[in-house]
Amino acid sequence: MIALSTSWNAWRYSQAKDIIKEVRALGFNCVELNFSLSPAMVNQMIALKRRGLIKVVSLHNFCPIPPGISRKKALPDTFSLSATDEQERQKALKFTKKTIETASAIDAEVVVLHTGKIKARERIRELALVYKSGRKQKYEQLKAQMLKERKAKSKRFFDQAIRSLEELCAYALRQKVKLGIENRYYFYEIPSVEEMEIILRRFPGPPLYYWHDVGHAQVYENLGFLKYKEILEKFGRRMVGVHLHDIEGIDDHRAPLKGRFDFRQLLPYIKKDTLKVIEAHHPATAEEIVQGKKYLEQIFKAKKT
Known about the structure:
The protein is α/β, with parallel strands linked by helices. The chain has nine helices and ten strands. The chain has one domain: TIM Barrel (Alpha-Beta Barrel).
């Protein structure tokens, strides 16, 4: 079964019933709740779930939005789990725990987490422009600079992320909710591939798992950092869920079939219980979402035969 993230249409509505009405009209019975839903909207979602109108498979942290943050400004990194400012990290912990509690209340299996970032000027789009221009020497120089800076600055932020995960894992176990650590898009976000390896070794069992975002991984192959299959080979056995969307260059979150990603790459790593969530964003149309859903269902059905 394939779910749809409310990141596609939540921004158009102020009432949960209208979000879910549109989602159901496209043929989806399951959703992931994204990070731009107010507390009132989340409570409405819980009521809709209890009436049997929708199944919620996962929540993307922070859900609901922390108090004082508008829906337009809500982000998964509003507060960072890797912050060296302890006040900020405590806020990130508090509102992540609220997301975990909400997941338990709505019977969602997984909370998708961003585990923080390193304080540095983000240069991934600059690198992409240099790469696209064909200036190989400039590309290699910039890439080397970024790698060097990340290595020099990462430890204290990564240590904070580990501290946060230790507390959150204990909390999620009590709530009987899984945590899915998502591979990231921006270069200075945590975790890198190497950091993901450390995290999964440090937390070898429940409730912590790997959440795979197909577009984020493809960006890193497109920019020459790794081969796509490397990520799946390293983390596929711990993969609890996957965000499905298409990508062109570094432009991701397109509807499936509106980019160049080969979704068949996923088949060896998709298990029967792997959560599959389409995470297409605006301006993907309803028709594109429906076509993408049918295409993905055909691919995943072929795996069963």
